[in-house]
Design brief:
about 180 residues; 5-stranded parallel sheet; single chain; 10 helices; alpha/beta; globular
Length: about 180
């Protein structure tokens, strides 16, 4: 099984290790091993997003990700045909549908920007791997609750494409990593 980790889960991993858990060595050792052997993939766009939110995240907690060799670079990402076509329809929220109808040119710009962001790249990467017969799961802390954006959130997109998804705590528990809370 391959796991694709979202930025919010990386940030929670940092928080588990440095702020709310006594399991620092166990969790960081587990994560380093999973990244090193390729069971966990971090997209470059996800890495950048996590750093914007938690600047100490990688230098302090995940030194293995300081090397670009452990990141899936943007140049290695390629659009998934279904996602590209669905962005103008089923992946839109109600406010996205209104925006598209009222501002078609601005909508195309928003769609292009969204295609370059980590969330949709995470989904496209998972779909591309599944087409190559690789089982994968998206790890994200996002909920299905809307936030007023134009495009649906990761859980709803995963539901639409029937992708497996779990949050970080469930992922660690399923992998046998015990979290000792402070």
């Amino acid at each position: 099984m391959l796991y694709l980790i979202d930025a919010n889960s990386l940030i929670n991993l940092y928080r588990y290790i440095y702020r709310v858990s006594d399991s620092k060595e166990a969790i960081s050792g587990f994560f380093d091993e999973k990244v090193e052997n390729g069971e966990v993939i971090i997209l470059e766009s996800i890495h950048e997003e996590a750093i914007r939110h938690e600047s100490l995240l990688f230098s302090e907690m995940i030194p293995i990700l300081e090397s670009d060799s452990h990141l899936l670079e943007k140049s290695e990402m390629y659009p998934h045909e279904r996602v590209t076509s669905d962005l103008s329809s089923v992946l839109l929220t109600n406010s996205g549908k209104r925006f598209k109808r009222n501002n078609p040119d601005a909508f195309e710009q928003a769609k292009s920007k969204f295609m370059s962001q980590g969330d949709i790249q995470l989904v496209m990467s998972a779909l591309n791997r599944i087409e190559d017969s690789v089982q994968c799961t998206v790890v994200s802390e996002e909920s299905k609750r809307g936030d007023g954006k134009y495009f649906k959130k990761i859980p709803l997109i995963c539901d639409h494409y029937e992708l497996q998804m779990k949050n970080l705590e469930k992922y660690l528990k399923d992998e046998g990593v015990e979290i000792l809370w402070i």
